[in-house]
Each structure stands twice: as structure tokens, then as C-alpha cells.
Predict the structure of Aspartokinase.
Amino acid sequence: MALIVQKYGGTSVGTPERIKNVAKRVARFKAQGHDLVIVLSAMSGETNRLIALAKEMQVNPDPRELDVIISTGEQVTIGLLAMALKDAGIDARSYTGGQVKILTDSAFTKARIQSIDDENMRADLNAGRVVIVAGFQGVDAEGNITTLGRGGSDTTGVALAAALHADECQIYTDVDGVYTTDPRVVPEARKLKTITFEEMLEMASLGSKVLQIRSVEFAGKYNVKLRVLSSFQEDGEGTLITFEEDSNMEKPVVSGIAFNRDEARINVTGVPDKPGIAYQILGPVADANIDVDMIIQNVGQEGTTDFSFTVPKNDLPRTIKVLESVQDHIAARSISGDDKICKISIVGVGMRSHVGVASTMFRTLAEEGINIQMISTSEIKISVIVDEKYLELAVRVLHKAFGLDQVL
Ligand code: ADP
Ligand code: ASP
Ligand code: MG
């Protein structure tokens, strides 16, 4: 008998029928004697629908009110699952984030979990009930409803597993595990039996939305046994996120490819090449709470230099405005933005001990005539920015070039 936290994503609870299927799986685990805490997302498409609705009222929705609205999707699914379970003769009780309570900071739309009160959940589990918790939401110290950022139900799941010292956290989704890359883009992608925590962290941070990055961070910090599985299969091992590299296994150099369509590139040209210029450009951007990812400053020529960086696509107009307001001060010749770009990253702990990975990547892209606009590297990843129209092609050829389509 174990304590298991199961999280079901939007597609897995997308229709009443699918919610009944979730109830069946929960019933099976319950019949095996396990204690269960279930975390649910909103029905697929619902969060997007609610955001669109909010934007009809305000072009830039007030963040506090936006959270009031977008947290409702999860409140519907948890109630429905509790009913489905009761209908099957299983005692269950649903809780919103505030009812649990999941305490967060007050950063509306991207709040961070600070603490979780496990009292209600423990009492229910002791009474033999299935506990159902709304994902993606919490409450701040003043009692305001907060949400945890897109994909945040994963984080609710892992955070509850950590707080309850659960034996395992199972993330049920619409694919049967973590693949070498998004199987919807590369049909030859292979499911991984295991992936190291470090690699999963990189994959998530570089755009693989199969797990929200904060859920992986939580799992690492609190040693949560984390597994990704399909809600559409009866059984299957899914993918286990491991803390240690399996020394018995021949590790590939590159384990996976991630991509992100969500960035835009800014170019600032002709700025004086002198100390402090990076700060003068990026300081106002940071003050406006805009996250900067990749940064390149060219070698100066004749006293001036060019500067490029990437920001989330949504923040492109705002970033341009901020820079235009300081254009005279930084003496820039021009400020421009391009949102038709994407970032493609190869990830693998095996890269540490191999040279030539970067040249293979660059050669492969060159052979397809794909121009690289920016590059950044770390010990276990290489990222490039390329024109958005090459995304699928680039991921496919890289997947092949690094042998990711070959069974080991
Ligand atoms: P959920 O609604 O269950 O949270 P998401 O849509 O957030 O599901 O995440 C699952 C999706 O992540 C898959 O349908 C797949 O398209 C995408 N994905 C991206 N990269 C990967 C990867 N490396 N392995 C598996 N799925 C991936
Ligand atoms: N419903 C939220 C979203 O669409 C949270 C989640 O699904 O994890 O982002
Ligand atoms: Mg998700």
C-alpha cells in the first residue's frame, strides 16, 4: 500500500467520458489499497477560453482579476470527478487550492507555492477518502486567489507529493512518457524509459511542455519520485525521472531535443561600445519585469557595437516601447524586433564528455541551408535561434543526426 499523487492534464479530463475514465483508474488503484490524492487540470481549451474572455473586457487583463477567472476551470473538473467517484461508490472530496490550503506569494498569474497545509488531506485519507485538489491555483496571505503559470497543475501535483511525502507522483497526460523530442513534431521520436532530473530540467526550461519547469524543480528539491504516463493506456511504465545516471546504460551523447516558439529577438544597433552599455540597455528591460533569455553583444567596430537579446513573444511590443523610451540616452542607431524566430536546443548529460557535438549540430543545420541567428551553450545543452519556418525541419534533421531515432 502506498500514498500516490496522480495528476491528470487537460486532455485527460477533456470530456465527461474521460473524467469517468479517470474515475475508473482511480477506483483500480483504490481497490489495490493505495491512498490517493488526485490533482486535476481544467478541461482542455478551457483556460485559453477564459483568457480570451478576460481580454474582451480589458486588452491587458488585471492580473488579480485574471486569476479569479482562470482558476475556475479546475474548480469544475474536481467537482465532476468527485461526483463520478461517488457514483461508483467511492468516497471522495474535492478542494480548491484555497481550501487545502496551498499558500503562494502574490505574483498573480505566476505565483510560487510557499507552503501547503496537509491537515484536511490527511484527515480525509485517514477516513479512507480519495482527495481531489484543483491544480494550477493557490491563495496568497491576504486570501487572494492566485495561479501558478501555464501548465501549473504539474507543479501542484509534485508540490502535494512533496508535502505529503508521497511514495510516487504520477503525471498522466496524452502521451505515454517523455520522448526524445515532441512526438507530435517528429513521429520517429522515441519514448525514454528514464531521463535524469538534470536533463528533464533543461528540457522543461527549454520549451518541452510535457512538464512545467517548476514541477521538475520541486521534484529535485524534495526528492519526489516522478513519473510521466498516459491516461489513455491501461498500463505502461511511462518515463521515470531519475536522480542518478544509470551506469549500466550506454548513455547517448544527446538525450533529447527541445524547442520553443515563444521567444522574440530584439536588435539594438550602433550603440557606443563602452563600459555600462549592456546595463543601460537591459536595466530598463529588467525594471519592466521582462525576462531576458539569450544575449549577444558583438565585438565593437569604430566605437559602436550591436546588441541582441530574446524576450518572451508576448513581451515584444512592451520591450520595444521600453527601449524607445531610452533610445536617445543609449544613443542607439536603431531598435527592432523579430517574433518569427524559434529556439532549438539539444540536451544531454553525455555532452559533458564529448567534443564535436556543437560542430555536428551546426553542420547539420548548414546542410539544410538553415541560418543560425544566435547560439548559447552550457555543459549539457546547446541552443540556437533560427527562423521559425525551419522549426520542424531543424528538429527532424537534428533528431536523426544525433541518432535519436535509433533504439539503443
Ligand atoms: P497536459 O494537458 O496533460 O498537461 P501538455 O499538453 O501540457 O499535457 O503536455 C503534453 C504534451 O507535451 C504532449 O502532447 C506533447 O505534444 C508535448 N511534448 C513536448 N515535448 C515532449 C517530449 N519531449 N516528450 C513528450 N511530450 C512532449
Ligand atoms: N489549466 C492550466 C493551463 O492550461 C494549468 C494546467 O493545465 O496545468 O495552463
Ligand atoms: Mg501540461
Q: What stands out?
A: The mean pLDDT is 95. The pocket of adenosine-5'-diphosphate (ligand 1) is lined by residues 9-12, 41, 151, 173-175, 178-179, 181-184, 208-210, 256 (CB under 6 Å).
